[in-house]
Design goal:
about 15% strand, 20 helices, single chain, 5-stranded parallel β-sheet, about 500 residues, 16 strands
């Protein structure tokens, strides 16, 4: 699609979605990727205000950035389109987000090459495979919730395993069946407010007719929560419960939030999508626990995603999860990697016919069935046009983009320097290696190596092999990245 806007004074602009390019009077305007992506999103969604949360998620998915990053992207986007009149075209809506207010003419997309069409089909219509059992369990929970018996689903698994995708598919089905879907995403990093996860949920609730009135339940809520909500949707806080102990005040706050959700759910069943609980603050987690005690009698389904990774036993999420799993209406769904058959199905969807066995085998071996890696590898093959002739793809043609490798690099980045040296030496020896030999190669005393091997195991980088004294990299990409570190 091509979007045309502007006038003779500011210039006539074309925003080419296919070419990912901005043109002014026929000439390409140099603009960085983030401001360009911001423009595309705001122009596509020009009929509404795009929330700040949505902008952060679209531009920096899974990454904690400061508000100044968005401000800078907006400023650069305005400069690119000559919007110099205090945001007359790209307008800021206080505490809500941004909206594109210029007049836009849509022009059908230009004819695509076969390569571009293949890449677009692969990216725009991803197949959903390998999660039939998990989706069936979530559908059952939703049917119960629609009939007044609410539930909580903990969707757990390592990074890239498809937790968010499963929650989105279930939520979309429920929405088509009449549910109101409210999403909150936890943010990693310092300075995140205590109730940020729930503030997002309640903001979205206040934007709907089914929930705006329900926010009256929060009239007595403390400022730490009401200050995060849109002023137009929430009545001004009234001093209440000031004489109570802090623990009692917090309990009453939790109860008010649950009553708010219950009041809205009685008008229209709710589905809460609570993303990345491992990053949520202890206050938000305690509110989830409170909800779990009340959810059985509500037309409400909560879908919570939790990343599997090494954490200290004192971490708030480690204390919460066992208590949630004890609740009668809590379902724990642990996701694992795709099978070889699932990988073949994804390739067949992308190619339009059964894939060559060599290609599917290499793709499975390279990604070990991690959904994110499988999809990214297929996307790269499509963008290079290699899926037009899949029989000609060589083994080294199956690659992953840096953003996928960055995800698996995180556990390695958390290792201490001595542990990195030991893991690098182990990578030289192979996917499976002898601990004592790796220590000798790294020049580390055997006693010290034992502690370092324990550190790498706790981080999920290696695991004990079947043979005593031997270890194994948990993923081939861990070994590959460690080898790169040795080479550099």
């Amino acid at each position: 699609m091509i979007y045309r806007f502007g006038n003779r004074g500011s210039g006539r602009f074309e925003l080419d979605e296919e070419a990912r390019e901005l043109r002014r009077d026929g000439r390409v305007v140099e603009v960085q990727p983030k401001p360009l992506a911001l423009l595309l999103l705001l122009v596509r969604e020009r009929q509404r205000v795009v929330s700040l949360d949505e902008l952060f998620e679209a531009l920096w998915p899974g990454v904690a950035v400061t508000p100044s990053s968005l401000t800078r992207a907006v400023s650069m986007a305005r400069r690119a389109i000559g919007d110099t009149h205090r945001g007359a075209t790209l307008r800021s809506v206080a505490r809500r987000g941004y909206r594109f207010t210029g007049e836009v003419v849509e022009i059908g997309a230009a004819p695509r090459s076969a390569r571009a069409s293949e890449a677009a089909r692969t990216e725009s219509a991803p197949a959903f495979v390998g999660r039939d059992d998990a989706l069936a369990r979530l559908r059952e929970l939703w049917r119960d919730a629609a009939n007044g018996r609410g539930g909580l689903a903990l969707i757990e698994g390592p990074p890239g395993i498809g937790k968010t995708r499963l929650a989105e598919v279930c939520a979309a089905e429920a929405e088509r069946a009449g549910a109101l879907v409210l999403t909150g995403r936890s943010r990693e990093g310092e300075g995140v407010p205590a109730f940020w996860l729930w503030a997002q949920v309640l903001r979205r609730l206040g934007a709907h007719e089914a929930g705006a009135e329900a926010l009256n339940e929060l009239a007595d809520a403390p400022a730490e929560l009401t200050a995060l909500l849109a002023p137009a949707a929430t009545p001004p806080p009234r001093p209440a419960h000031a004489a109570l102990a802090p623990e009692q005040q917090r309990f009453l706050l939790f109860d008010a939030v649950v009553r708010t959700l219950a009041r809205a759910a009685r008008r229209r069943p709710l589905v809460l999508v609570l993303e990345d609980l491992q990053w949520a603050g202890s206050a938000s987690l305690r509110l989830i626990e409170h909800l779990s005690f009340e959810i059985a009698d509500l037309p409400l389904l909560a879908l919570a995603t939790v990343r599997d990774e090494h954490r200290e036993a004192s971490h708030p999420i480690e204390r919460l999860l066992p208590r949630l799993r004890q609740q009668q209406r809590c379902e724990s769904i642990a996701l694992r990697g795709f099978s070889r058959r699932d990988v073949v199905a994804l390739l067949e969807h992308a190619i339009g016919r059964p894939p060559p066995p060599d290609l599917s085998s290499e793709l499975y071996a390279r990604t070990e069935g991690v959904p994110l890696f499988v999809r990214e590898a297929i996307r790269m093959l499509a963008e290079r046009g290699e899926l037009l002739h899949p029989e000609q793809v060589r083994r080294w043609g199956v690659t992953l983009p840096p953003r996928a490798l960055d995800l698996i690099r995180r556990p390695l980045d958390r290792l201490s320097p001595p542990c990195v040296a030991l893991v690098g030496a182990a990578a030289v020896l192979g996917r499976d290696f002898q601990g004592a030999l790796a220590a000798a190669v790294a020049g580390i005393e055997r006693e010290a190596a034992v502690d370092l091997l324990d550190e790498a195991t706790a981080a999920g980088v290696i695991e004990p092999a079947d043979t005593p004294g031997f270890w194994r990299f948990t993923h081939a990409l861990f070994q590959e990245i460690a080898l790169e570190g040795v080479a550099t």
